[in-house]
Design brief:
Radius of gyration: 21 Å
Strand content: 35-45%
Strand order of the largest sheet: 1-7-6-3-2
Helix content: under 10%
CATH architecture: 6 Propeller
Largest sheet: 5 strands, antiparallel
CATH superfamily: Kelch-type beta propeller
Number of domains: 1
């Protein structure tokens, strides 16, 4: 009987050549593993193409910051976790996330970020390329980054991420609107967005309000 031996790394790479990465057969050590969902708060849960939910970040007093990338597969009703590459966040809480279908990527902004033994408000923007689970820490192609923002809301309008509300530090609320343009990798900051937001005029004295 022929004995089976584990393939070497060059053999693994050779087997995958000629096929798109998302269509390659996963070897046992590459396949996502079914996991139990940890108790977390302050995380994001984002729909990907109506097929799965991506859970990023979160914190619990028992387990600390969640550093796993967890995916709930709607077809099977199971949670899975697989290897990540690139520059993943080391711990996030109170951030936001939006899914951009054209690039099959998740954009994760702000929150409390755990980094080098310290958790502090963050202005960082991460992208996750979902097919190969690769993270990137994005620096704007032009212009500056926004101030830190946490416990805010984000939504995607076309190719623009809109960030609203939240706090710029633990004791300061923010009413500024931030716009991130995915295709340009650039931010429109409050000094620009305020020009496009109409502020209702205060009613004149003696004028009934409706």
């Amino acid at each position: 009987m022929e004995r089976y031996s584990q393939p070497t790394q060059p053999e693994r790479e050779q087997r995958g050549k000629g096929f798109p990465k998302e269509h390659r057969l996963l070897l046992p050590e590459e396949a996502p593993q079914t996991v139990e969902l940890p108790a977390v708060a302050g995380h994001t849960l984002t729909v990907r193409r109506g097929l799965s939910l991506l859970l990023v970040g979160g914190y619990s007093p028992e387990n600390g910051f969640n550093q796993q990338l967890l995916e709930y597969q709607l077809a099977t009703g199971t949670w899975v976790s697989g290897a990540q590459s690139g520059t993943p966040p080391t711990g996030l809480y109170g951030h936001s996330a939006v899914y951009h279908e054209a690039t099959d990527s998740l954009y994760v902004f702000g929150g409390f970020r755990f980094h080098v033994e310290l958790a502090a408000p963050s202005s960082e923007l991460y992208s996750l390329h979902c097919p190969d689970r690769t993270w990137s820490l994005l620096a704007p192609s032009q212009g500056a980054k926004p101030r830190p923002r946490l416990f805010h809301a984000s939504a995607l309008l076309g190719d623009t991420m809109v960030v609203l509300g939240g706090r710029s530090d633990p004791d300061e609320f923010s009413s500024d609107v931030l716009l991130y343009q995915v295709n340009c990798n650039s931010w429109l900051l409050p000094d620009l967005t305020r020009k496009f937001i109409a502020v209702p005029a205060s009613p004149r004295p003696g004028t009934p309000a409706h």
